[in-house]
Amino acid sequence: EAIYQEAKESDVALLVVGDPLCATTHTDIIIRARETGAEVQVIHNTSVMGAVASCGLQLYQFGQTVSIPFFDDKWRPDSFYPKIAYNAIGKMHTLCLLDIKVKEPDFQAMMRGQTKFMPPRFMTVNTCIAQLLEVEERIGEGHCAPDVMGVGLARLGQPTQCIVAGTLQELLDVDFGGPLHSFVVCGELHDLERDYLAPYMVTAETPRLPPPTPDEDGAAEEGDEVLPGDRDIF
To answer: How many C-beta atoms surround the C-beta of residue 161 within 10 A?
Structure first.
C-alpha cells in the first residue's frame, strides 16, 4: 500500500527480472495501483517466454507454461503435471520455468536471534528432470517418461548459452553450466523443428556432470547451483 500511495504524487519504479507482464503477481500490482488512482506505465523487457525460440521450437506450438518448484522432504507437489499432460495431449510443447530461491531465511540462525539468509539457489535442468521423472513414477501417464523428448536451456542470449536436446533420460546428467536454466518438455515436433534442433542433440561428446560421491548423493536435488560459485553467472 505504501508503494501505491507514494506513486500518486511521485515516480515509483518496480524493477523485475524478465518482462513484467509475464507474471500474474505484477498484473495484480498494476490493478491495485490503478484502483488508487496512480498512473501506471509498463516498460517491457526481454523474457525467456520469447527467448526459448532460440532452440528452434516454434512459439505457436507452445501450450501452458508451468513452474517447477524445489522439492523438499515434506513438500513434493505435482500440480504442474496436469498442465504438461494437457499440452502433450494437444501435441504442444511445455516451457518449464525453474525455481529460484533468493533471500531464504536461515531459520537455524533466527533461532539464535540472528538475521541471516541462505545463499541463493537456482534450479538446474538436471534437478528439474529428476523431479519430473519422480512425478511420472507417481502418476504414470507417460507425459514425463524417460523417453520423452526435452530441451535444456541455460543462459539464453549470452555468449555462453547452452542448448541441449534429447530424451529426459539422456539429459539427466548433462552439464549445462551456471544459471539461469529453463527446460522444455516437447510435444509433437514439426520437421522444421527437428532440423533446427539437430545441432543441439545430445552426443557422446556432450559434457556430463561427474557422478555424485557417497557424501554428495542427493545433493544436486537439494542444493543445485548455489552462489557464490566458480561459474560465470548471467
So the answer is: 16
DSSP string, 154-188: ESTTSTT-EEEEEEHHHHTTB---SSPEEEEE--S
Q: What is the pTM of this model?
A: 0.84
pLDDT digits (tens, 9 = 90+) for 57-93: 999 999 999 999 999 999 999 999 999 999 999 999 9
Calculate the CA dihedral of residues 93, 203, 169, 155 and round it to 10 degrees. Answer: -50
Distance in angstroms (rounded) separating the CA atoms of residues 58 and 55? 9
In whole angstroms, what is the distance from residue 30 CA to residue 42 CA?
Answer: 9
Radius of gyration (C-alpha) of the chain in whole angstroms: 20
> What are the phi and psi torsion angles at 194 (to 5°)?
-60, -40
Quick one: DSSP state of residue 31?
H
